[in-house]
Amino acid sequence: MRRRRWLPSCTMSSASRIPGHRFLHSPGPTRVPDEVVAAMSRQPMDLADPRVALLIAACESGMKRLLRSERAEVFFYAANGHGGWEAVIANLVGPGTQILVPGTGHFSDNWAEQVEAYGGRALRTPYVEGQPIDAAAVEAALRADTQQRIVALFAVHTDTASGTTSDMAALRRAIDAAAHPALFVVDVVASLAAAPFEMDALGVNVVMGASQKGLMLPPGLAFVAADEPAMAVARDTLVPRFYWDWQRRRGAHSYLKFCGTPPLAHMAGLEAALGLIEWEGLAAVHARHARLARAVHAAVGAWAEGDALRLFTEMPAARSVSVTAVAVAPGVDPEALRAVARERFQVAIAGGLGPLVGRVFRIGHLGDMNEAMVLGCLAGVQAALQVQGIPHGRHGVEAAIASLVQEQGL
Amino acid sequence: MRRRRWLPSCTMSSASRIPGHRFLHSPGPTRVPDEVVAAMSRQPMDLADPRVALLIAACESGMKRLLRSERAEVFFYAANGHGGWEAVIANLVGPGTQILVPGTGHFSDNWAEQVEAYGGRALRTPYVEGQPIDAAAVEAALRADTQQRIVALFAVHTDTASGTTSDMAALRRAIDAAAHPALFVVDVVASLAAAPFEMDALGVNVVMGASQKGLMLPPGLAFVAADEPAMAVARDTLVPRFYWDWQRRRGAHSYLKFCGTPPLAHMAGLEAALGLIEWEGLAAVHARHARLARAVHAAVGAWAEGDALRLFTEMPAARSVSVTAVAVAPGVDPEALRAVARERFQVAIAGGLGPLVGRVFRIGHLGDMNEAMVLGCLAGVQAALQVQGIPHGRHGVEAAIASLVQEQGL
Amino acid sequence: MRRRRWLPSCTMSSASRIPGHRFLHSPGPTRVPDEVVAAMSRQPMDLADPRVALLIAACESGMKRLLRSERAEVFFYAANGHGGWEAVIANLVGPGTQILVPGTGHFSDNWAEQVEAYGGRALRTPYVEGQPIDAAAVEAALRADTQQRIVALFAVHTDTASGTTSDMAALRRAIDAAAHPALFVVDVVASLAAAPFEMDALGVNVVMGASQKGLMLPPGLAFVAADEPAMAVARDTLVPRFYWDWQRRRGAHSYLKFCGTPPLAHMAGLEAALGLIEWEGLAAVHARHARLARAVHAAVGAWAEGDALRLFTEMPAARSVSVTAVAVAPGVDPEALRAVARERFQVAIAGGLGPLVGRVFRIGHLGDMNEAMVLGCLAGVQAALQVQGIPHGRHGVEAAIASLVQEQGL
Amino acid sequence: MRRRRWLPSCTMSSASRIPGHRFLHSPGPTRVPDEVVAAMSRQPMDLADPRVALLIAACESGMKRLLRSERAEVFFYAANGHGGWEAVIANLVGPGTQILVPGTGHFSDNWAEQVEAYGGRALRTPYVEGQPIDAAAVEAALRADTQQRIVALFAVHTDTASGTTSDMAALRRAIDAAAHPALFVVDVVASLAAAPFEMDALGVNVVMGASQKGLMLPPGLAFVAADEPAMAVARDTLVPRFYWDWQRRRGAHSYLKFCGTPPLAHMAGLEAALGLIEWEGLAAVHARHARLARAVHAAVGAWAEGDALRLFTEMPAARSVSVTAVAVAPGVDPEALRAVARERFQVAIAGGLGPLVGRVFRIGHLGDMNEAMVLGCLAGVQAALQVQGIPHGRHGVEAAIASLVQEQGL
Fold it and tell me: Which of A396, B195, D110, D130 supports an S-S bond with B191, CB 3.0-4.6 Å?
C-alpha cells in the first residue's frame, strides 16, 4: 500500500511566486479571465461526442460575429501567431509570388521575411518610425504594378512593436483607387477585440489573428478567416503543405477541420471569451480600450516633461488602444527598468523588439483590463522610473487619473 | 438520450462581472491566492483516509508555529470570527463571570455584548476614538479587582473598525504589575500574519482568529489556541455547549476534533496558506505589511491637505499594518465614495462600522497583497475622490510611490 | 531582486496523490462538481457590494424551493452538521425542555446526547437495528404526554450510519393522530436533494441540513429553515446563545444574517449547486438517486450469496437512496476491506459508526453521482472483497449492470 | 453605474452537462490531472520574465529524461500531432525524398499521405490487419535499396487506430542488418509515458509526439526530438518552411525556440505532467499501464465468448498498453454502442478510423488512469452491450477484476 508523500511542485522551478496579483502589461500574452480559465479546465471529450461539434460551431459563428463577416470561412489552428502567418503564406504564396507588405515596423518586416522563406517576393513600402502605414505609398506601389503581378497586400493592423495602428479604410481606398485586384490580407493579432475592425465592410479577403491578446486566451491558438476569392487563390497556390491547407480543412468533422485533434481546451476557452465580449458588448469593449489607452497616453505625456521619455507613435490617431510604446532617451536602459518594475513593483511591461531593442519600453493595456489595473501599472512603472533615476515628470499617474475622471458616459 | 443545453450560470444573479482584476481592499475577506484556491479545489476524501489526519496535523503544527506557541492546543471550527468569539465565551464565561474588555472601539464593544448574551459581566475600559487600548486603565481596573473576580481579559489586538493596533506587551505588563491571575485572551483576527505576535512570549493564554484576513482564506474557518490554565477554567465553566466545547474536541479522530465533519476545503486551503507564509518567511510577511501600510499612510497624509480627510488613528505606532481608517469631514459621504470606487474604478474599500458609519472609510492592505495592488487601489480611491468632489491633496499616489521607493533592503 | 524557487507543496504532507480519479463513496463529504468548484474559486467581495446581497438572496430563495417551503425562513451558518443541530437546540431547548427523539440509530442517539448537553430532556423511542422509525411508538409517546410537555419531535430523515430512511409522512400522521402540538423538526442532512421531501406539505416546522452531501459542497455550511411557530418557541427559549440565535439573524444585512462575515465561498458554491439541481430537475435528481441505489442493492444482494454480507436495512422501502450499509459476518474486518479498496482500487467507502463499528461498511451513492461511478465503485469493492478473501457471490457487478439496464424511461 | 446580470454560460452550447464524473476512454485526448489543470491555470508571464526561460528549460530537460535521450535536441510546437508530423516532414522531406513507412494501419497510411503532400515518395511495407510491423519486410526493403536513396524510416510505435504496438528494437536490428544509413524516425504519440521507449538505446534519430495522450495535457502541443545526424539532413532539405524549421528554433530566446509566442499554458502543464510522471516513477507508470491493459484484455476475452467481439490485435505481445481495439462481427454497429455507452452510462469510448470505421470500437486506458476507472469503463461498456443486444460473455468485468486481483507486487 503506497503512501508516499506527494510533492508536486518541487520540480517546478518555473513557478516562482510573488505575493499578490502580478500585473501583466505585456501586449500579449494578456490576463486570462476566470471564466476562460474555468472553461479551459473542463476535461476533454471524445471527439465523436456531439458536444465537440457544438463547441466548434459556436466558436466559428462567434468569431464571424466578432470579425463582422458573414461571408468568410474560419479556420482554427493549434499554432501561435507565426503559425497563423504561415497558414496565410502556405495558402497564398508560391515560388515567386509577389506580396506587397506595407511597412509598419518589426512585424511587417517579420511577416515579409517569412513570405520570402516560402519563396515569395515581398515588396515593402517604406516604414518611418513612429508613423503608421503610408497609404499613398501603397497606392503608388499598386499603380506601379501595371501587370498586376502582386497577388496580395499583407497589412498589419496594429504593429505590437511600435504601438501603432494603421488605417485599414485608407488601405481599402488605396487598393480601390489603384483598381488593383490584389487580395487584402490583414493581421489583426494585436487589434482584434480592442480596436474596431469590420472585415466585410472593409472588403478584407483574409484576416488572421491569435488567441493571446484581445481574445484573452493563453497563446496556442491561431485563426484565419478567408473569403471565396482568397480560397480560389489558395487552390492555385502550389506549395507543399498539409497542416495549413485550407482546402483540406473544409470537412465537416473536427478531425478534418483541425487536421487532426482539435485543441479542445483553447476552443472551450475561446467560446467563453467570445461570450465575455458579447456580454460586455463589442462597442463597450472598444470604448473601454480607448479610454484606458487615453489614460496611459496622458501618463506618458506627463512623464515626457523629464525629456527622457516620449510617446513613440507621434500621431494621436495612430496610437494603438492595445499597447503604448514609450521611447527612451539614449543612456536609459529600458530592460533594467523592466526588471525593477517586475521584481520590485510586480508590474511586467514589455521591451523593444528588433531595431527598437534598448530604445523603447511598452505598456500593454488590452484584453481583460480595467481602470484600476492600468493605474496600478502606471504607478508601478513610475516607481521604477524613480528607483532607476530616469528623469520624468512626476505627475504621470495623476494625469492618468484626471483622464479617467473626465471620461463621459460611465 | 439526453442532450439538453447546459446553462449553468443563468441563475447566478450574484456573479455579475467586471472586466479585469477586481481590487479587494476591504480588511477582510481578502484575496485568496491561487495556491489556496487550488488546494481548496481538491476533491474531499473519506474521513478515515489517513491523509485527512495528516492534513489536520499539518494545520495544527503550522498554526502553532505561526502563533509562536509550543504549549497551546489548537481547535479549529467551521465558523466565522463571531463563532470564534463564541467558542471562547462558551468555554470561559458562565453566568456572572466577569470579563475585562479593554476598549478598542466597535469590536471590543461587540465582543463585550456577546459576553453579556452568555450571562457574563463585561467590564469595559474607556475607549477614546483614534487611540489604542489604555494599558494604564487596564492595570487600574485589575488592581481595583481586589477579590480577583475577573476571570479573563479579552483584548482585541487590531480593531478592524478603527484600524488601530494596541500594544499587547503593554497589556502583559499591566497584568503582571497588577499581579492579577486573569487569563489573557487575545483576538488576532485582523492582525495575525500581518503584525508580529508571539503567544508564548507574551504569556497569552488564549488566542482566537479567523480565516479571511491575514490567513488569505475565504471566511468560514475560525480557530482558538488555548493553554492549560485556560483549559482548566473551561472545565469549570458551566454553560450549555457542545459544538464549541474544547474538552470534547480533544479526541484523536477528526470527527471529535471538529465536532462532526471537518471543513476539509478550508483545512486544505489553510495548509497551503501556512505554506505560503512559511515560504515567504514570517518576518518578511510582517515587513511587507508594514511597508505597504506606510505607503497607504503616506497617501492619506497627502490627501489630508484638503482638510476633508485624515488618518483616524493618531499615534503612528498604533496604526494597523492591516487596515487604515480614513476619517472624513462632515458632509462627506463615504458610502457614495465607495460605490464610485467600486463600480467605476474597480476598487472595493470598506466603510465605517457602528459609531463610525458615515464617518470613515477604510482601506484594507493585508494578506496576499503587494506594492502594485496598493498603488492601484490608492489611485482608484483618488480618482473616486475626484469624481465625488471631495477636497484632497492631489499627490496622494505620488506620496505612496515615494514611500515605497525609499524603502530599504529590497 | 528576489528570485527564490517556489516550492509550494513541499509542506503539503496531506496531499498524497494517486493516479487518476479517486472514487469517493463515503455518504458525505461527496464529490464537488466542477461548476461548484469554479463558483467557490471566485475571489471574495467586500461585504457592502450589492452582489453579496444578491448572492444571499438567491441562496435563500433557491433553498426554499428545494425544501418545498414557502413559509419558512432560512438561516445559513458557517458550521458543519453538528453546528446545524446546535442551532436547532440552542433555539428550542432550554433547561428541562422535553424533546422526543425517535430512534434511528447512531445519529438520533448523537442528537439526543447534544440535546442533553444543553440541559434538555431527550425522550427516545426504541431503535431496532435495520429498521426505520417506529411511527406507532412515536404516536404512543405523544399520546402518553398528556400534559403536552414535549416541545418538539427531532427526527432524522435518513440515518447515515444505518442507511435507513424513515417515513416522514407517517410521523406527521402520528403527530396528528395524537393531536399533539409538538414542533416537527427534521434532519435532512443525508436525504436532501436525494430523496423526496416537502417541508410545507409535511407540516414540518424546522428543517436542518448541511452542505457536504446531496448539496455537493465541501463541509462547512449548515442551514436551518424555521416557520413562525418555531420562531415563537425560539423567542421563549432561555439559553445563552448568540451565534446560533435565529432572532438576531433576522436582519437585512449580511453581517446580521450570518452573525458576522458570511462564508462567501460556500454561498457561491451553494448558488451553483442549487442551479445544478434545478437544471437537472428535482424529480430527475430523485429518480437518479433511486436508480443508482437499486443498482447498489442488486450488487449487495448478489454478494450476499456468500453469507458473509447482507443489506443492513431489511425493508426495501426503508433503504436509503443516499447510502447503503452492508452488514458483515463476524470475523470480517470492514476497516481492512476499506483500506484495500482505497489504497489498491482507488475506491473510498465508509465504515461503521458507534455500535456499528466493525460490523458494517457503507457505500455512499449520493450527490454528483452517475451510473459509471457506481459501477466502478462496486467493481472496486468486489475486487477488494476478493483480495481480502471475504466470501461473496461473484456476480455483484453484473447484477448492478442488469439493474441499470432494465431501468425504464432513460 | 453598471450592474447588469452576468450570464456567462448562456452561450456555451457546448458545455452540456451530465451529473458526475465523465469517463473518458478515448485513446486521446485523455484525462487532464488536477495538478496539470492548476498549472495551466496560472496567469501568463511577460516573455522576458526569467521564469519563462526556467519553465522552458525544465520542460526540455524533463522531456529528454522521459525520452531517455542525452543527445537529442527538443523542439516544442504549438500544434497538434499532425503538426508534429509536419514538423518532421518539413525538415526531412524535400521533393522526391524517399521515406520508408512500415505499415501499421491508419496512422502509417496518414503519415505517408502527408509525406506525399510534401512531394516525398513514401515506400510502404504491407500491413496485415491485427499484426504489428513486419520487421523482415522492412529489412528487405532496405536491402533492396542498394543505392541507399531512402532517407528515413518513419515508424509508428503504437498505431492508435489498431491498438497495436510494434517492436522498435526489431526495426533497429533490421536497419542494422541491412547496414542502411536511413534515419530512424519514430512516432511515439500514443506510446510515450505508457510503454517503454529508449531513444538513445534504440538508436532513434528523431522522435515526435503530442500532448494529449500519455502526457496528460489537452491537445495543442507537439514536440520533436532530433539528434545531430537528423539535424544535418534537415539543413540540406530544400522545402519552404519557417514555423516548423528546426534550425531557426535553435536560438536561446523563447521567441526563437517557439517561432513566436510560446504556448505558456501548455508548457506549464507539461512541466507539471512531467513532474507527476517522475514522482510516480517511469517504471511504475509503465507497469500501471501494462496492468490496466491486461485487465481490459481479460474483459474483452470474456466478452468474446459471445462470438460477436474479439481482440483486434492477435499477438498478445503486440497489444498496446494504451488502447485496445475490439473488432465487432458484421451487423454490430459500434457507433450506436458508443452513443449508448456515452449518453446512458457516461463512458466515452472511441470508434474505428479509416478502413476500420464500423468494424471496431476502441477502449483507451492510458494517461491519468487507474483500476477503478478501468473497471467503471468496462462495466459501462458491458451495460451498453447489453442494452444494444450485442452477444457477449457476461463475465467481462469479473474477468477484469480477477486479472487485477492476481497482479503481484502491489
Answer: B195
